[in-house]
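fyi for ur records
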Amino acid sequence: MTVSQEQLIAGFDEAGRGCLAGAVIAAAVILPPEGLPIDGLTDSKKLSPKKREYLAQVIEERAIAWAIGRAEPAEIDQLNILHATMLAMRRAHASLKIVPELALIDGNRCPDLPCPSRAIIGGDLTEPAISAASILAKVFRDREMTIAEELFPGYGFAIHKGYPTTQHRSALAALGPSPLHRLSFAPVRQCLLTSE
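which gave:
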């Protein structure tokens, strides 16, 4: 069945905005406008890691197109987290093999994209394409942070995924920032000031 261009909607979401370390990862997903819906799509934070991994595989298999974009810690420090998130979403859009007619963005801000876009607060709960993007972004970022634990042991990246938990803050105080840490974020900046 031929899908008309007007029906191609891409959902966008990110993972890692509130982290102290690692990239911010954005995903873009274009689901088939007709066909079998993917059961269980919702905000990735409401799913277990096992369920997210399973759904990520289903999304990758069934999506018309999907892509990942990222902004690195140095870019986050240079641009700030909001602008770095928008950059990651633009990169995800640029990596799509199909150009969507409309982009639906989770949140209250839209990146500057070469197609119409609409921000939807809580969109990861109401729009399947955004839910799918939420899951892919979270799964890809969690995988990276698990690898980061092997590269930079002692921080607990595999457990807290870079979020500012008590364990992470304690490791940061004891070890100082790793190359993955966002130096502009207050807890990391404070750690640097304390060590001087």
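The two ends are 64 Å apart (CA to CA). thats all i got for now
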